Amino acid sequence: MKITATQKQVRQSPRKMRLVANQIKDLSLEQAMRQLAVMDRRASLAILKVTKQVIAVAMNNHAQAFENLKLHSIEITPGATYKRFRAVSRGRAHSIMKRTSHIKVVLETLDQKDKELGSKKEVAKPKTAIKKKK
Known about the structure:
Elements: E1 2-10, H1 14-24, H2 29-38, H3 42-60, E2 69-87, E3 93-109, H4 112-119
Antiparallel strand pairs: 1-3, 2-3
């Protein structure tokens, strides 16, 4: 089962948010939480908040244990752009784009079958060449 949580209109550019998201998307859930907590970027706080939200949803609404949760994906998409201007000489103006982001964190639950398959992986035997007799 996949469980999602989203946060919309986060006042940080998607480009800066993706730098943080790409660093943690291949980590386990526990390692990702630790990494986000100590990371020295403003985007890490917003992503950590959404990650905590989705964990709370999984535990309270879907009765899942923390050990059964796995980070499936983190999506950072652009939100609305606030357009402002800076006044310059001769009555002109330069545009300023204040970008926002949408954060979507998806967790995946590990079913009992998935746990058994993961622990009982068999190593494939090497194939030996069979020579034909003439």
